[in-house]
Amino acid sequence: MKHFYTRSEQIQGIIKGLNLTKTLYVSSIIIGPEHTGKKSLAQSVFPNAPMVSGEKQEEIKRALATSDELIITNFEKLKNQSELDFTNKRIIATANYMGNAALIDDLFAFIYTMPSLNQRNEDVQYLKELYIEDAKSTLMIENSTIDTENIPLDLTLNNKSLKRSVYTYLIKHTMESDDIEEIIYYYLLKHLEGNDAYREYLGLYEKPLIKAGLEKFGSQLKLSEILGINRNTLRKKIHEHNIDQEL
């Protein structure tokens, strides 16, 4: 059985409403942005219902002819919606946007709105912790000293970008020098060309070195000593890489 993870009162209200219709032949639709968990929520409440995408018109026709209960995802992509007959059917649909509001109102007894993650702060933190544990297990990370409190979370694509930002952060913070060298090697193998490539790609090494040094030591003088280069040379490189504008 697929489990849906949430601490949002609004989402729990949707789940409660769907549960109340589990024994009734009524149709419901969950509308909200992509990657907010609409499909997972429907599957968690109706685990035995067949699921078909609205992009597959013929499959939906066959499913409606043989099943009393059906999950239709991407409902907004389904053509000829007005020809559908949901009589004596339990349909749970998901859609990224409303579409024809009057038609939706005719087809569905219950219309639920799934909010974006940036409107569900309690879920952001809850899912973040779940993804951290998932990433540690998947990537076999045993280092417990990684700072996970200040992970820069990307919510632009809801669950998808949130999960990716957690995984990316943990990967970056567990890399060893061999891993970094290999990444740079494959990047250069793909992109290396031109007549002045040495100078062009030197920034791959210099820029992060100088940025990290400035953040760690907080002083150009101290960093020039650490790197063993002239302070004026350091200032020149800071200007070349626009580092002074980014810190």
Short description:
With 247 residues, this protein is of the alpha/beta class. It is built from ten helices and five strands, in the order αβαβαββαβαααααα. A five-stranded parallel beta sheet has the order 2-3-4-1-5, sandwiched between helices.
Describe this structure in words.
- With 247 residues, this protein is an alpha/beta fold.
- It folds into 3 domains: 107 residues, P-loop containing nucleotide triphosphate hydrolases (Rossmann fold), CATH 3.40.50; 54 residues; 60 residues, Arc Repressor Mutant, subunit A.
- Helix content is 50%, strand content 9%.
- The protein has 10 helices and 5 strands, in the order αβαβαββαβαααααα.
- The protein has a 5-stranded parallel β-sheet, with helices on both faces.
- Strand 2, helix 3 and strand 3 form a beta-alpha-beta unit.
- Helix 5 packs across helix 6.
- The chain is elongated and about 80 Å long.
- It comes from Sulfurovum zhangzhouensis.
- This is Fis family transcriptional regulator.
Topology:
Elements (H helix, E strand, L loop, with lengths): L8 H12 L7 E4 L6 H8 L5 E3 L3 H10 L2 E5 L16 E6 L5 H7 L2 E4 L7 H18 L20 H14 L4 H15 L5 H21 L2 H8 L3 H10 L7
Pfam families: HTH_8
InterPro entries: Homeodomain-like_sf (IPR009057), HTH_Fis (IPR002197)
Protein name: Fis family transcriptional regulator
Characteristic terms for this protein:
10 helices, Rossmann fold, 247 residues, 3 domains, alpha/beta, Arc Repressor Mutant, subunit A, 5 strands, five-stranded parallel beta sheet
